[in-house]
Amino acid sequence: MSAVAGATKANPIDCLLLTPTAFGSESGTLPVGEFSPGDEVKEFLTNECKVLVVGAGGLGCEVLKDLSLMGFGDIHVIDMDTIDVSNLNRQFLFRASDVGQPKASVAAKFINARVAGAKVMPYVGRVQDRDADFYRQFNMVVSGLDNIEARRWLNSMLVSLAEVDDDGDVDPSTVIPMIDGGTEGFKGQARVIVPRFTSCFECSLDSFPPQRTYPLCTIAETPRLPEHCISYAQIILWPKSFPDRKIDTDSPEDMQWIFDQAKERAEAYNISGVTYMKTLGVVKNIIPAVASTNAIISGVCATECFKIATMCSQNLDTYMMYMGSEGVYTHTFRYEKKPDCPVCSGATRDLAVNPNLTLADLIKSLKASDLRLKAPSLAKADSTLYMQKPKALELATRPNLTKTLSELVDDDDEITVTDPVFSGDVALSLKLNFSLDQPTVFGDDDDDDDEVGGKKNAP
Fold this sequence. Notes:
This protein is α/β, with parallel strands linked by helices and 459 residues long. The chain folds into 3 domains: 12-209 and 289-333, NAD(P)-binding Rossmann-like Domain (Rossmann fold, 3-Layer(aba) Sandwich), CATH 3.40.50; 216-283, Arc Repressor Mutant, subunit A; 349-446, CATH 3.10.290.20. The protein is built from 15 helices and 15 strands. It has helices spanning 2-10, 12-17, 39-48, 58-70, 103-114, 132-136, 148-161, 216-221, 226-241, 252-268, 276-284, 291-310, 359-368, 391-397, 405-408; strands spanning 50-54, 74-79, 120-124, 140-143, 178-184, 187-193, 319-323, 330-333, 349-353, 377-379, 384-386, 414-418, 428-434, 451-452, 455-456. The protein has an 8-stranded mixed sheet with strand order 3-2-1-4-5-6-7-8, sandwiched between helices. It has a 5-stranded mixed sheet with strand order 9-13-12-10-11. A hairpin with a 6-residue loop joins strand 7 (319-323) and strand 8 (330-333). Helix 4 crosses helix 12, helix 9 crosses helix 11 and helix 10 packs across helix 11 (276-284). The longest helix has 20 residues, at 291-310. The radius of gyration is 25 Å and the shape is globular. The chain starts with a helix and ends with a strand. Residues 1-8 and 444-459 have low confidence and may be disordered.
């Protein structure tokens, strides 16, 4: 008893790791291993367990702080963004003098200087720019990303790294758990994903509403909302005025230009509501953030990391939602696997299509479907139907876009679909079933101005 008390006074973490418990990981509904209290598990936590934190924004800053104070000794963080003045009210690892610097580098430097024994390694860039070997080195990944596309890609990468033998058995040594956190205003969620064992992020894609977009024809011809005017300045006026330069969303000068142009257009159409803050929100797709929500969700994510690393307690199975606007309220449940999930199920989807549908319209329908693909490429076992990249292959396969499916494939043929929202090792298998009851034209041309292959109204 005195030893436990002494450990508690010296280090609360020691009390958890050196004391037996009846509530170890093996006793929960999502067991990942058996808890063995002692110095060995503490040694693993402080010196051997490598954790990757993806994102150093509002949630990522909190996660880095929590993990380092919990005793994780080998933390890595990746983020592509630089620090903006608007970040300073909630991303507490940054100061005014840090504006313009990479978030990952500044956050790592702050933690290393502030927390004794902490070792944080920063990486500046997109998660999609790192290969499988980079992610394979980590024991777990914490996602603090603020966009769905990057989270889908990261999820597919970790699922692809979990190796399955010919009998369908998963090699546990290749499984890298992912703890995904997200916040929006007073709402937040935390989730534990154990690739191949639990549902993955893609399984729950239907629970996330599609990002709001506006038809190009409305933006250009009949604007009715302040968002239309801002999008017009961003999508149409900027490329005309600066054809050789992309918008720097972290540049006050660029954002001021967009705001001025949007305000001028709004006044011409007698539209009110165009403000500088709304301009930032539309261009940067800013999600409302509350510092206390970030702190709560970060605490849950970091605690789940600690439990998975040490197995000292029962793990979350598998989803927790926080509803701060309703009071101090949380709801937990198990997110079940989606039987035809394109990432973790490996199942072939049956797709009824009209044989007279063009390949362009098939691609269009895939982008608008529940799959939410961004730029799909399609191939058969013996030929390539259409490839988005490289440019030479796109040009070579572009003529297929205007051909009908009956000219390119046979009834019940299987095609493979790849897309940037998935990592390179993940592909979707579709079995095309010809049916004359299906439409031959997809979508409404009045509301769709997508451009692919250099052709307006292509998918």
